[in-house]
Design goal:
heterodimer, A: 287 residues, alpha/beta, six-stranded mixed β-sheet, four-stranded antiparallel β-sheet, 9 helices, 10 strands, globular, B: 258 residues, mainly alpha
Chain lengths: 287, 258
C-alpha cells in the first residue's frame, strides 16, 4: 500500500537507497527459550530503515514490536539472521542510541536535571568530561532540552513533583541529551491521557524535525503512528512478521486537526483492517 | 502538622510514665517482694548508685555490639551485592541463607565458645551472625528491584554492569540499607548481650547473670533498664541517619519546594 503522493511532502528520505541505511534486519528471527519451551517472538523479518527516517511499528499486542526494538538496541541477539545497525553487526554501541519506554523511570533521588544528564555519565565523549562540565555546559544542555519540551524551570525539581505527562517529557529529554543518531521509543505515551498524548506528539515531532535522528517508534495507537511517522510497518500477531510497509506523506509539521481529515482517516482505517485481519488469523490459528 | 506531632509525642511519653507508675503501684498494693519484682523506683536508685560499677560493662557491651555490627554490615553488604546483582545467585543462595537465619543464635554461642573460648570474641561473632542477615536480604532486594526499563535504557547506551550498579543499583538500595541498619543494630545488641549472658565475664549480660545468681534482683532490673536505654538510643541514632541520607524515599510533604 502506498499513500497518495503528496506534493507538500517535506523531503525526508524517500527511498532507502538514496540515504545511508541506519538499521537493517535481514532474515532476522528471535526465539526465546529452547527445546519444547521455545517461544517464537519474531518470525523471519527483513526491514531496512534509512538514516533520519521516522518509522512506526504497529500491530496487535504481543506481536514482537518490542522485540524488534530490543534487537536494534542490542539488548537481544537474533536467533537467526543478521541485524546491522550503523553499518555494524548488532550492538547499538556502534551508534549512539536513545531509548524511552512507557514508564519514565526517573530516579527519585535526583533532580530532573540530573536525571536527564544520566546518559552523559555513561556515553563517551561526554563521560570523560562529566565531572568538569556537569555544572556548566551539560546542565545548560539539559535545560535547553527541557525548554524545548515546555518544562523550563523544572530542572531543579524532583520527579515526584511532576505529573505523568511532565515526566514523560523529561524522559524524552533524557533519551535525546547525548545527541543520539537513533531514537528507540517503546509506547512512550501509552500511559497518558488523550490530550497530553497529542501535545507530546507535537513536541516529539518538533524534536525530530530539529535533531533528525532515526526514530523507531513502537505503538498501538494508529493515530499516533499516522501523526508522527514517515513510514508505518504493520506487524502480524505473534510470532510477528511485517505484513505491510507504507509511507506516510502528509506535510510537516502535522497538526492534531489533520488527524481528522479524510486522507488521514482513510490511512487509519487501512491500518486497522490489516491489524484486524492479523488478529482474526491468529485466533483461528490458536483454535 | 506540627501540633499533632507534639501531641502524639506527649501521648507516647505519658504512656511510658503511666507504665512505670502502674508498676510501682502494683508492687506497693500487692506487697510484692523485691526478690521477685522490684519497684521501678528501687531499680532507678540501684542504677544510680551502681552506675560507676556498671559503666565499664556498658562500654564493653557497646563496643562488642558495634564491632559485631560493623563486621556484620561489611559482610552483609558484600554478600547482598553479590546475590542481588545476579538472579541465579539470588535463587541459588536463598534457601541456604534462610537455613542459616532460622537457626536460633543461642544455639550457636556454645560453638563459638568451644572455638574461641569465652569472652569478647564469641560475643562479637554472635552479634555479627545475628545482624548480618537482614542486611543481606535488604541489599539483595534493593538491587534486584531496579526497574528493568531503566536498566535497558542504560545498557543500550553501552553501560557496563558496574556503571548500572554504581549509578542506579546502589543509590536505589540506600533506603533498604538504612532500614536494615536500624534492625541490624538492635539484633547485634541482642546477640552481644546473649553471648555475654552465656559465656563472658564482662558486659551488661554478665552483670545481670551474676546479679541474679546473688539474688540482687534490683540490679538485674537495672541491667535490663540499661539495655532498654541503649537499644532505644542505637535505634534512634540510625533512624536519624536514615532520615538524613534517604529522605527522598519517604516523600515528605515538607520536602516539596514551590
Amino acid at each position: 500500500m502506498r499513500m497518495q503522493p503528496n506534493s507538500q511532502f517535506d523531503g525526508s528520505p524517500v527511498a532507502a537507497g538514496a540515504v545511508p541505511t541506519a538499521i537493517e534486519l535481514s532474515e532476522a528471527s528471535v526465539t526465546f527459550g529452547r527445546g519444547d519451551r521455545a517461544v517464537p517472538a519474531l518470525s523471519t523479518t527483513t526491514l531496512k530503515i534509512a538514516d533520519g527516517e521516522f518509522v512506526a511499528l504497529v500491530g496487535p499486542s504481543g506481536c514482537g514490536k518490542s522485540t524488534i526494538l530490543r534487537l536494534v538496541s542490542g539488548l537481544v541477539q537474533p536467533t537467526s539472521g543478521v541485524v546491522i545497525v550503523g553499518g555494524r553487526e548488532v550492538a547499538a554501541r556502534a551508534m549512539r542510541v536513545g531509548m524511552a519506554f512507557q514508564n519514565p523511570t526517573m530516579l527519585p533521588w535526583m533532580t530532573i536535571e540530573r536525571n536527564i544528564m544520566l546518559p552523559l555519565k555513561i556515553v563517551e565523549p561526554f563521560r570523560s568530561n562529566f565531572r568538569r562540565l556537569r555544572k556548566t555546559e551539560f546542565r545548560d544542555k539539559a535545560n535547553a532540552l527541557l525548554e524545548q519540551v515546555g518544562l523550563k524551570g523544572f530542572g531543579s525539581r524532583y520527579p515526584w513533583q511532576l505529573s505523568g505527562g511532565m515526566l514523560q517529557r523529561a524522559n524524552l529529554c533524557r533519551a535525546l541529551i547525548h545527541e543520539p543518531r537513533m531514537l528507540l521509543l517503546d509506547e512512550p505515551f501509552g500511559a497518558l491521557d488523550q490530550f497530553t498524548r497529542e501535545e507530546l506528539w507535537t513536541i516529539l515531532q518538533a524534536l525530530w524535525m530539529t535533531h533528525k535522528p532515526t526514530v523507531l517508534l513502537v505503538t498501538h495507537d494508529l493515530r499516533e503512528a499516522g501523526f508522527l511517522a514517515s513510514r508505518i510497518c504493520v506487524m502480524s500477531a505473534r510470532p510477528g512478521r511485517i505484513l505491510d510497509d507504507s509511507r506516510v506523506e502528509f506535510a510537516r509539521p502535522r497538526t492534531v486537526a489533520m488527524t481528522f481529515e479524510p486522507d488521514f482517516v482513510a490511512l487509519n482505517q487501512k491500518l486497522r483492517a490489516f491489524i484486524e485481519d492479523a488478529r482474526s488469523a491468529a485466533e483461528q490459528g490458536a483454535g | 502538622m506540627f501540633g499533632i506531632d507534639v501531641r502524639q509525642k506527649a501521648w507516647s511519653a505519658g504512656l511510658i510514665v503511666l507504665f512505670f507508675v502502674a508498676w510501682e503501684l502494683f508492687c506497693l498494693v500487692t506487697g510484692m517482694s523485691d526478690l521477685v519484682l522490684p519497684r521501678p523506683s528501687q531499680v532507678f536508685v540501684t542504677l544510680f548508685q551502681r552506675f560507676p560499677v556498671l559503666w565499664p560493662h556498658i562500654v564493653q557491651t557497646l563496643a562488642t555490639t558495634m564491632f559485631g555490627f560493623v563486621l556484620g554490615v561489611a559482610l552483609g553488604v558484600a554478600l547482598g551485592a553479590i546475590i542481588g546483582v545476579s538472579k541465579t545467585a539470588y535463587d541459588t543462595c536463598y534457601p541456604l541463607l534462610i537455613g542459616f537465619s532460622s537457626i536460633p543464635k543461642v544455639a550457636v554461642v556454645p560453638i563459638f565458645v568451644l572455638w574461641f573460648g569465652s569472652g569478647t570474641v564469641p560475643a562479637v561473632l554472635t552479634a555479627l551472625s545475628i545482624c548480618f542477615f537482614p542486611i543481606v536480604v535488604n541489599i539483595a532486594t534493593g538491587l534486584a528491584t531496579t526497574e528493568p526499563e531503566l536498566e535497558d535504557v542504560l545498557k543500550a547506551l553501552g553501560a557496563s554492569k558496574l556503571d548500572i550498579l554504581w549509578n542506579v543499583g546502589l543509590p536505589r538500595t540506600m533506603p533498604f540499607f538504612f532500614a536494615s541498619l536500624k534492625v541490624a543494630i538492635s539484633y547485634a545488641f541482642v546477640g552481644a548481650v546473649l553471648s555475654e549472658t552465656v559465656a563472658s565475664n564482662r558486659g551488661i549480660g554478665n552483670v545481670m547473670m551474676t546479679a541474679s545468681s546473688n539474688f540482687n534482683v534490683p540490679l538485674v532490673f537495672a541491667g535490663l533498664f540499661v539495655l532498654a536505654g541503649l537499644g532505644v538510643a542505637l535505634y534512634v541514632v540510625f533512624s536519624l541517619i536514615e532520615g538524613q541520607v534517604t529522605g527522598w524515599a519517604t516523600r515528605k510533604n515538607d520536602v516539596i519546594a514551590t
